[in-house]
Every structure is written in structure tokens, then in C-alpha cells.
Write a structure and sequence with these properties.
The protein is α+β, with helices and mostly antiparallel strands. It has 10 helices and 40 strands. Helix 2 packs across helix 10.
């Protein structure tokens, strides 16, 4: 289907990219004469050498690019003041939802200001005196080790915790004595996409074979296996529990439920959902019972309680519903909570005598109280449209939930199920920010095909529609992921300086169920880009702004969105920030877990039609070039330890941009070190990155921001 018709090798091609900006001399990227053939289509890939992130030529190019970028950003006169302002806004106490542990204590994360990582505390009672349980800031000198999860043994004696280093998806598991906090010798390496699922005197976890040295963050990950680790034994003695060598690109996740009597395995990686199977843990050599053989639907085990399994599934219900089955007959299901045609089921949690069911409607959370026989009793009223998550236990009547919105920093509430009353437990005070000065509204605008797309707008009260307001337009549009309201202290410098923050809920997400998702996948992907373009056009038509003041930003799949949209409509935007983006649609599936994105994107190996479609919007391959082409100012961001979307995507995209004739606006790339795809990034690095991004934006839209 695809062949390389020219081998790698450094070329003497002179690709000094002076055309993009007469004042910036971009580094010369290493090149080759590589040409790939897809169903008879010849596709040059001149920057193939940049895929080798450990090569000397690539390292030199990265170093030179960072010098150029730093020179540009550090010369912006207000950059340091802007960084100080962002840091000041970030210097507030950030709260997270408390969770009841198996030892009867509550655990919660909290960051009292500018700590690089939130600290995990425990307490006997919420609101009472708390002690530090794990402080990840002590695990590294620069905050680049992130605590990514914890789980306790059934009796609460042991706590396993997972960490990530430098933002990588690779996971390490450690074990400690819960009461004394003493670290045990148990240590698991090369785990990925896993937590510790306790059963008996050990736990299940998922891991890949040890990767090739030097290729830990780029080579394709294959053969995800489930192991069982017994406390006090070395990892080499761990027992292989589950593998599927016939399907090396599948994910396998262990789920222990039913008072440690059932082991479920969720199987993903080759569809929009997941397969599911189960076996009893108390029956040696028991066979697996297949609950869902395909990966065509979401199939989640919400709870096993009183001999009954509760499933959340999208099978025959695009907006999802709750099904139940007996533990003794797990495939014989009946409808427990029917699909809601107007809202998407998001989560189900249990108290001793009630259920809390979260729905998403028009991209906001709507939680309800249900009886244990599946009847809706009441709605939990939230402060405004926003996002709520609940913490419950069948061992305690206490219910807590977190709530956040664009103007509402994450706050913790206690909810009394018997009275229906919510009480504020913790709410932060953000330095220098008065939410009463701003407003958020939700609008609906037509896309190119007439589909109405929701979008949130946040701005200062009294802002006039005089076509002269700067707009920061953000989107994602993919992988069944929604963009509900959330608070970001980083955005306050934008709002304070008269900017509008616009968040569009594009097709490809989960805002309106599986149908909404499918309308933004594979050969419907152009719908997503059209939705984003229509958002900018709406803001212009409504008199909010003009193309000289519009910035677009997105990360990961959203980075693809920004790159593709700029290539389609370079005239519509002044600044573009594609972050850690998927930029080479012809080869994305060849790196780390890129193959997992095929259900959303399709691959260049699938068919001539699919390859042609991908080539038609792939950001690396569709950059316009010519004396009359004028692109917006572009700041690409990536990181050296990103093993989700490997930095080669951004490297090749930036090199292609810089070599093309795209006008005088700067085309820069910011390559972070000791950082990954974004999760677990130390707050110091977050502040530095945001200072660079906002400085770049303000500088290129011609506004000097006011700082306090």
C-alpha cells in the first residue's frame, strides 16, 4: 500500500527560510530526498530526519530553533511583567475533590499557591486538621515528577501510587504502608495507561515490554499486557494475567469489582469504544465471559453492588444509558436508566441509599438524584452552567462535589442527600480577580452545512460590539471529548485587557453523544475545521472583532485543528498557537500510540480514498506558499518528552512553515525540555509557557497589555 521510494540521507538542499520573515533567520533543518507512495500518490517527506529526535542533527536544530524563539520572545518589552502578572493570578489555593479511602480517612489534593505539584493530604474529617500524605514536590528538584494516581488495598493497609517523569505517559508504581507512610521496596517500571487494581495481597496493572534504549519516547507501543504483582516480590516475578498477541495494538485495562470477586478487562485501541470481558477471581482457571466483543461502543462498569452489575453503555443508545445484569449472568442485561434523547449520560455514583447521575446538556453538567430502583427524584442545582464532579461512597452518606466555570474557580461543596442542600466547603479567592466584573454567555452559530454549534463567550461587562475587541478562540473537536466550562487563571490577563475568550464545542466531541462525535471523524473531519472557521466568522459578523484581532489555539488534536484551519483560511486569523499538535496525518499512526487514533482519523494505509482525504488537510502537507500568501503569526509548542504526540509532528510542521513563503509574520517553535504532552507539568513551567504564548499574541495583535 505504501512504500518508501527514496531512502533517508542528509541533503545539501538550501532551505534557509528567509521568506517567512525578513528579520528572522531560521535554522536550516536536516533534510532527505524521501518520497512515500500511497496508492500511486507520491508524497515527498523532506524533513524525515527530524523524526529521529536523538540524532545529532535534530538536537542541533532544536537548540538553534530555541535560540531563535527565545531571542524573539525575550525581546518583547512587556514579557517579564506579563509573566509576573500570570504568576500573581496563579498564586491562589487550588482545591480538589476529597475521596474516602479504604482506611476511613479522606484524601484530597491541594496547592496553596505556586507549588509545582499539588500535595496529597489526608484527614479524618473534611474541614478538620489534615496531614501531608504524599508531596510530589519532594520527588524531584524541579517539580517534573507528577503524582498521577493512588489506590488502596481493600483493608487500607497499603497504598499504591503512580508517578510520571517529565510529562511522559510512562508510569511507575510505588507502594507504601498507609498508616506509617513508609515506602516499601515494591517498584513497577514501564507501565502505561494504568493504575493499581488491588485484589488480595497484590494488584493488577498494565505494562508494555521494555522499550528499545534511546527510543522510549518515539517507537510504537505494542502488546499491552496485564500483570499481577504480589507485595514484597520483585517485578520480574509478576504473573502475566492477560495478553492478546494477535492484536498487538489493543489496550488492556484491569478492573477489580464486586468485593474483589470479579476481574473485568476493558479492551480498547481499535474503535470508538471498548470491548469488555469478565471472570471470577475466586474460581481458579475460570474462563473469560465476553460481555461486549467489539469496540464499537462505550462499555463501562459503573458499580457492582448487591449481586448486580451496573453498566454505562452507548450500545443502542448514542447518548448512553445504564444497563444492569446479575453477577451470575453478566451478559443478560436489562435497561435500568433509559437513554435521554436531550442529554448525554456522563457518570453514575452511589451513596448507601441513592444514586447521583451526571448528564451533560449543551456542554454543561446537570446532576440528578436517583433512587436505587432507577427513578429520578430531584436535580442538584449548580451555581451557573459549568462542570461538576462527585465523590461518593456506599460506606458513608457524605457526598462532596467540585464545581467550576469560566468565572468560577474550582470550589468544593458538601451535598445533603436528605435535604437537597449544597454547602460551600472550600472556595478560592484569586488574587486581583473579581468575577462580578465579567460575564459568560452561551451562543449558537451555524456552521457551513447549517448545523448549530454551541460556543461560550467570556468577557468584561460593558464590552462594546465595535469590531475592535481581541478574541482568543479555542477548540478541540475530536475523540468523543467535550469542552465544558472550566476556570483558568492564565486567561485572566486576556480578559483583564479587554479580550474575549471564546470556546467552541465543535463536532467530533461528545457534547451531543456519539452522533456528534461521528460527524467529526474520518471523512467527516472537515466538519470540525468548518465549525471552527464558522466560529471566527460569527464573531466578526456579530460585530465583536475583525480578522486582525483573532487568535486561535488548540492542543493535541486541537493543534491539528489550528494547523489545518490556518492552511484553509490564513486570512481569517492574526495569530495561531498550535500546541503539541498532530501535524503529519500520513504517518501519525507509526509513533508510540498514534495507531490508537485511527478510529477518529482513519490512516493512509486504509484506502486510496482515505489517504487522499488525509493528504488534503494534513497540516504539514497543505501549507500554502507564494509571494501573495500571508499567514498569521504562528507559535508552535511541543516538548522533548511528549510520547503521546511525538515532537516530530511539530518539528516537521515548523520546518515546512519556515521554508515556505507565508508572509512576514513570525513562524516560531517553542520546544520545552523535561516536559511532555501537558499533564503533570510543573506550575513554574506552565507560567513560563503561558507568559511566552500571551506575549507572542499581544505583540502580534499590536496591544501592550496592562499589568498590575
Amino acid at each position: 500500500m505504501k512504500s518508501i521510494t527514496a531512502t533517508l540521507g542528509f541533503s545539501a538542499l538550501s532551505l534557509i527560510a528567509m521568506a517567512s520573515n525578513p528579520t528572522i533567520k531560521y535554522p536550516v533543518a536536516p533534510t532527505s530526498k524521501t518520497v512515500d507512495t500511497y496508492f500511486g500518490m507520491s508524497v515527498p517527506d523532506p524533513y524525515r530526519p527530524l523524526e529521529n529526535d536523538t540524532a545529532a542533527a535534530t538536537k542541533k536544530w532544536v537548540e538553534e530553533e530555541n535560540k531563535v524563539t527565545r531571542s524573539y520572545l525575550d525581546a518583547i518589552p512587556f514579557r517579564n511583567n506579563l509573566r509576573d502578572q500570570i504568576a500573581a493570578y496563579q498564586n491562589y489555593t487550588k482545591y480538589n475533590l476529597p475521596v474516602l479511602g479504604n482506611d476511613g480517612k479522606y484524601y484530597f489534593y491541594e496547592n496553596d499557591g505556586l507549588k509545582n505539584q499539588a500535595v496529597l493530604y489526608r484527614t479524618d474529617k473534611i474541614g478538620g486538621e489534615a496531614e501531608v500524605f504524599i508531596d510530589p514536590n519532594t520527588l524531584s528538584d524541579n517539580g517534573t515528577v507528577a503524582l498521577t494516581g493512588t489506590s488502596q488495598s481493600k483493608d487500607g493497609r497499603y497504598t499504591a501510587y503512580t508517578i510520571s517523569r517529565n510529562g511522559s505517559d510512562w508510569t511507575e508504581i510505588y507502594v507504601m504502608d498507609t498508616a506509617t507512610k513508609q515506602l516499601l521496596p515494591d517498584h513497577i517500571e514501564w507501565a502505561k495507561f494504568t493504575n493499581a487494581e488491588w485484589a488480595g495481597d497484590g494488584f493488577f496493572y498494565s505494562a508494555y515490554p521494555r522499550p528499545e534504549s534511546g527510543k522510549e519516547f518515539s517507537n510504537s507501543n505494542e502488546n499491552h499486557r496485564i500483570y499481577y504483582h504480589r507485595i514484597g516480590t520483585p517485578q520480574a516475578d509478576d504473573v502475566l494475567i492477560y495478553e492478546d498477541l494477535e492484536h498487538p495494538l489493543f489496550f488492556h485495562t484491569a478492573i477489580v469489582a464486586g468485593d474483589e470477586k470479579l476481574l473485568f478487562v476493558s479492551v480498547g485501541g481499535n474503535g470508538v469504544g471498548n470491548g469488555l470481558k469478565v471472570k471470577p477471581l475466586d474460581t481458579p482457571n475460570a474462563d473469560w465471559t465476553v460481555i461486549e466483543p467489539s469496540q464499537d461502543y462505550l462499555f463501562e462498569v459503573a458499580k457492582v453492588k448487591d449481586g448486580k452489575i451496573y453498566y454505562i453503555t452507548s450500545k443502542d443508545a448514542p447518548n448512553k444509558r445504564v444497563m444492569t445484569a446479575s453477577v451470575d449472568d453478566p451478559t443478560n442485561m436489562s435497561v435500568f436508566i433509559a437513554e435521554d434523547p436531550k442529554a448525554v449520560l456522563d457518570a453514575v455514583s452511589f451513596t448507601p441509599d441513592k444514586m447521583i447521575v451526571n448528564y451533560e446538556q449543551d456542554a454543561s453538567t446537570h446532576p440528578y438524584i436517583y433512587s436505587l430502583d432507577g427513578h429520578r427524584i430531584d436535580e442538584i442545582k449548580l451555581p451557573t452552567f459549568g462542570t461538576a464532579s462527585f465523590s461518593t461512597s456506599t460506606k458513608s452518606p457524605e457526598v462532596y462535589y467540585s464545581f467550576t466555570s469560566f468565572l468560577y474557580p474550582t470550589s468544593i461543596f458538601a451535598y445533603d442527600v436528605s435535604t437537597g442542600q449544597s454547602t460551600v466547603v472550600k472556595t478560592p479567592d484569586v488574587n486581583g480577580f473579581n468575577p462580578a466584573d465579567y460575564v459568560t454567555e452561551q451562543v449558537f452559530y451555524p456552521s457551513a452545512d447549517g448545523t448549530m454549534i454551541p460556543m461560550f463567550l467570556t468577557y468584561k461587562k460593558g464590552l462594546e460590539r465595535n469590531s475592535s475587541n481581541p478574541v482568543y478562540l479555542y477548540g478541540y473537536g475530536g475523540f468523543n471529548i467535550s469542552l465544558p466550562p472550566s476556570f483558568s487563571a492564565n486567561r485572566l490577563v486576556w480578559l483583564e485587557n479587554g479580550g474575549i475568550y471564546a470556546q467552541a464545542n465543535l463536532r467530533g466531541g461528545s457534547e451531543y453523544g456519539e452522533q456528534w462525535h461521528q460527524q467529526g471523524t474520518k471523512q467527516n473531519k472537515l466538519n470540525v475545521f468548518n465549525d471552527f472557521i464558522a466560529a471566527a466568522e460569527y464573531m466578526i459578523k456579530q460585530g465583536w472583532t475583525n480578522p486582525e484581532l483573532i487568535t486561535i489555539e488548540g492542543g493535541s488534536n486541537g493543534g491539528l485543528l489550528v494547523g489545518a484551519t490556518v492552511n484553509l483560511r490564513p486570512d481569517l486569523f492574526k495569530v495561531a498557537i498550535p500546541r503539541v499538535g498532530v501535524m503529519d496525518m500520513m504517518r501519525y499512526h507509526l509513533f508510540t500510540i498514534g495507531w490508537n487514533w485511527a478510529p477518529d482519523y482513519g490512516t493512509s494505509d486504509d484506502s486510496e480514498e482515505m489517504a487522499s482525504y488525509l493528504l488534503g488537510y494534513s497540516p504539514v502537507h497543505t501549507i500554502k506558499s507564494g509571494p501573495d500568501v500571508k499567514y498569521p503569526a504562528i507559535l508552535v509548542t511541543t516538548a522533548d518528552h511528549d510520547d503521546r504526540v511525538v515532537p516530530a509532528h511539530s518539528f516537521k510542521y515548523a520546518a515546512t512553515l519556515q521554508a515556505a513563503q507565508t508572509g512576514d509574520a513570525p513562524k516560531l517553535i517553542r520546544i520545552d525540555s523535561n516536559a511532555g504532552h501537558g499533564a503533570g507539568k510543573p506550575i513554574a513551567k506552565v507560567i513560563d509557557e503561558q507568559a511566552d504564548i500571551y506575549s507572542f499574541i499581544f505583540n502580534n495583535i499590536g496591544i501592550t497589555p496592562k499589568t498590575k
